[in-house]
Write a structure and sequence with these properties.
Layout (H helix, E strand, L loop, with lengths): L3 H6 L5 E13 L5 E14 L5 E6 L2 E6 L6 H19 L39
Antiparallel strand pairs: 1-2, 2-3, 3-4
């Protein structure tokens, strides 16, 4: 059912990869034994431009926007569009977690003269001589 989401996405997310969960166990006493297993749990879909990555799993849904970044509204609308495909295909009983995470990156040219040229609050750095 998760792969059917790919059909709904059309050609906008052409790169599809399987997502597997791996588990392992090592027992040392009374004798050493090891075991491992892998289970297929979903798919990762990457947009043709590589900016959006969507994960549809048996245990969740994740949408990511990679750089270069656009407006929040565009990301929100694309996430809602694909969430609706996921919801229609999987019929989730409840949602346990909704989260947004921001990763900020500031490109500062070197040599750096003063952090205060780029940040309002700066770390105080002492250079040992």
């Amino acid at each position: 059912r998760l792969l059917k989401i790919s059909q709904r996405l059309g050609g906008s997310y052409p790169k599809v990869e399987a997502i597997n969960a791996a588990t392992g166990q090592i027992q040392l006493v009374p004798e050493m034994r090891a075991s491992a297993s892998s289970t297929h749990i979903g798919f990762s879909f990457r947009s043709h431009d590589g900016i959006y990555v969507c994960q549809t799993r048996t245990n969740g849904f994740t949408m990511s926007h990679l750089s270069p970044y656009d407006k929040w509204d565009a990301f929100r609308e694309e996430t809602k569009r694909i969430w609706n495909f996921y919801r229609d295909q999987t019929n989730p009983i409840r949602i346990n977690r909704v989260a947004v995470r921001y990763v900020n990156r500031i490109d500062i040219p070197l040599p750096l003269v003063d952090f205060k040229d780029y940040l309002l609050t700066v770390p105080e750095i002492e250079i040992a001589e």
